[in-house]
Amino acid sequence: MKILVCWIGKYDLDAINSKEGQWDGPIAQAVGWGDFEQVVLLSSWDKAKSNQYVGWLKGRYLGRVLLRLQILSKPTAFGEIYQAVVAEVGALQEELGKNIELVFHLTGCTPAMSAVWIIAAKTRFPAQLIESSEQGVQSVSIPFDISADFIPDLMRRSDSKLEKMAEGRPDEAAQFKDILYRSNQMKRVVDHAKRIALRSIPVLIEGESGTGKELMARAIHHASPRRDKLFTPINCGAIPENLLESELFGHKKGSFTGAQSDHKGYFEQSDGGTIFLDEIGELPKSAQVKLLRVLQEKEVQRIGDSTPIKIDVRIISATNRSLIDEVKVGSFREDLFYRIAVAIVRLPALRDREGDMSMLVEHLLKKINEEVAREQPGFIQKTISATARNIILQHQWPGNVRELNNTLQRAVVWNDDSVIDEETIRNSILNLMTSNVPHDSVLDRSIDQGIQLQDILNEVGRHYIKRALDFAHGNKTKTASLLGLSNHQTLSGWMKRCGVD
Question: Which segment of the chain is annotated as a signal peptide (predicted)?
């Protein structure tokens, strides 16, 4: 079965009033050229004009003519045009089978419509392309394979956007309003951070990987009196140890092999602003000593220079470890810890942010949709089904917001339909074992050599009692209520049994 599919254009409507012997317009010319069993007309014109044209065409063509009205915000809206084409041609294939012979008509419609016909014919619906004029109708041969040349370039641009988002880097001017939350846990943290932001004291941000430590650091900077100065993020674990001192504090020309000119370090460059030392626990002991001196003296000394340089820099540090534990085992200097931890912000894990998950899913999915749609014409916006959402709500998210974001990105890429279903979400979640999720290690312990069930139950009890006490600010009556216990005396009994001090 051979089917012609085309958009009704202005020249087609003008042909209705043409005089005898004048050109009948692009579509009528094409209809007379091919042995079509069916003609499908897509129209963004109003219903009256569209029906008038269909009636006129039927007077010249004895086959079946179908009209499909399409609502477009404008005749050059690539995404809307592509979605209309996919929906209508897909419906034809579903009704008549995928072996139908499709012919797409390029003439008379807008350039955007013609471009979408070419893309669709080369990538999704194998079809013959034709064009018509007063001289006749001819088949169109595209001089390059769009599916091999154009589409990969198009996808590469959108992929680069997704790759950048996967890094979890916040916007340069991120503020507290960019931190999304409903939970009481995050409300307390943000309120605390807002108070800290007004002062120039050093801040230590603690939290698991993916909890948004840099986002919080940027928000503190942009809410501070230093907001108009430089914010310099530094990944302490990414700089080779032999270059660390030069990168942080600078060097003089000729001070070592390769030092071909004077170099300002990050601290000197950020004078008056804020330095964000991410994963500060990765700093080697030698660098910790030098950083301590910078904090104490408020000056840096370039390698090879005997003259110190006064600086005014605020330090915000971050770690996914417990620096107190690092101090206890001797891998982090105690005196440096007390210098950088004048104020401490502890970001809760996503699994502990009750009520925040649904809000974050909606926000991240919207952001991913917007990023891909900007770079990929015809992209179908994704929503998420109720069952898929439930799976997300039940997952523990050891990678926190970054893991959630990357999971949704995978789901958007893998899902062909407009609704992300349960199977796609299950396949998108990386079920990695991690010690950060207490109940995973409890549930997955080997029983080959036997287990101590009471010890495990006490461990679980300690975990939830401590969390509830923290949430309730030590109020035992509220803690008992949170844990489903009858009163604070019963809670005291549980605390004693589980070894909670």
Answer: none
